[in-house]
# Entry
Amino acid sequence: MKKTWTIILIVLFALACARAVRPKGLYQGKFDTASGEKFSMRALKKNHTNVFYFISPECPLCVNYAKDIKDIQEEYGNDSTAFIGVVSGSDYTPQDVLDYLDEYDLDLTVVMDPNFRLVQFFKATITPEVFVVNNKSKVQYTGKIDNWAVSLGQHRQVVTEFYLKDALADIGSGVPVRLDQTEPVGCFIE
# Structure
């Protein structure tokens, strides 16, 4: 009997440890996209910069920021900078995501992250939340898109800080990102 309990405890401990293991690298593995294709993370390694944009189709701030993300993607997206949307968990179907992209005219590859692998890698907690990453998996900026949203339900009349744009401009100019982290505001990732 004692031997059985020991084996059970060892197995439970091993399972707990396995869940706590952080993914080995950002640019490993494949994800399904909202459009039903397989997306290899390795393909992003060729880019100088990748912007991961955690979204939730029904989060009011993700709706409010859709045009801003579209504009930033049009301004900074190119052969060496990719924008990747991430929808984590299982609350939204691929069709929900496609409807969101269509409604707000976003041309964005969105990966479905039902097991929270990217959430765990980045330690993402909020939507919308962005992570600007180089091809060596180093996060160069994380946080808000700009300072419009002060808190849930409270926003500024005029945007005075453009955090994501500034980070991308700094990277494009070859200088260190001046402000590499801000506190995101939005809906909790569940």
